[in-house]
Design goal:
Length: 217
């Protein structure tokens, strides 16, 4: 089933030849998402069978975080470097109301705080446990519908920093999906403008936002 499409990255990363694998060792495989929802979208996959088949909200405890934190950090470094190599912050017009300045691409902590999302989906669609490390631009041709966007831009996305959850109060999968993916308004992640249900308007707006913030080097 398509739910197991990530499996070969952890069972035999050395023989997968789709170009997605950027790092592996005995514990972990780090890949590029093949349907990236932003300019830079990576997945960190623990290779142990036991961890891989666990649900992320119950499997990611403090021991897990200690073990895999360093790999998450290397994925973060990869995304930061990718952005530094490819883009520069656009010199803003005087009337452009952004707090952005060049430090976003110079200082890693600022980049991570303002522009990175690290974490999991409350209801993953793929079976093998994975952690998303994704730039917060949502500027991608693969971002094709409301669910794609809202899976990262609502509480459907659980931040690495908020794990482990104190208590699993998430509710039923179907209810979570209806509340966040289907019914939740589309809200711009840069300026918080509300687009309601109008996905194509949001898409055009995200294109503008990206081009207002960044330019190619
Ligand atoms: P989930 O919604 O389960 O948290 O995210 C699974 C991710 O895996 C999605 O972002 C999807 O684009 C990605 N994905 C699905 N199939 C493949 C694949 O065959 N290769 C890679 N590299 N990523 C995939
Ligand atoms: Zn906006």
């Amino acid at each position: 089933s398509w739910r197991y499409a990530l499996k070969s990255y952890i069972t035999n990363p050395e023989t997968v030849d789709d170009g997605a694998v950027i790092f592996f060792n005995d514990e972990v495989t780090i890949i590029r998402d093949s349907f990236p929802k932003s300019e830079c979208h990576l997945l960190v996959l623990p290779r142990s069978k036991q961890l891989s088949r666990g649900h992320p909200t119950s499997t990611i405890d403090s021991k897990f975080k200690n073990n895999f934190g360093p790999y998450v950090d290397s994925a973060i470094n990869y995304v930061f470097k990718h952005f530094q190599d490819k883009f520069q912050v656009k010199k803003s017009d005087q009337d452009m109301k952004t707090e952005w300045d060049e430090s976003v691409l110079k200082n890693k902590d600022i980049f991570v705080n303002k522009f990175l999302q690290i974490g999991i989906h409350s209801v993953p669609s793929m079976a093998n446990l994975h952690i998303h490390v994704i730039s917060r631009d949502y500027h991608s041709v693969r971002l094709k519908n409301k669910k794609h966007y809202n899976s990262f831009n609502t509480e459907f996305f659980i931040d690495w920093d908020d794990l482990p959850l104190n208590k699993n109060t998430l509710g039923k999968d179907k209810d979570i999906e209806t509340k966040y993916l289907k019914n939740h308004d589309l809200v711009c992640c840069y300026c918080h403008e509300n687009f309601g249900n109008k996905f194509s308007s949001l898409k055009k707006h995200l294109e503008l936002e990206f081009n207002n913030h960044f330019e190619f080097k």
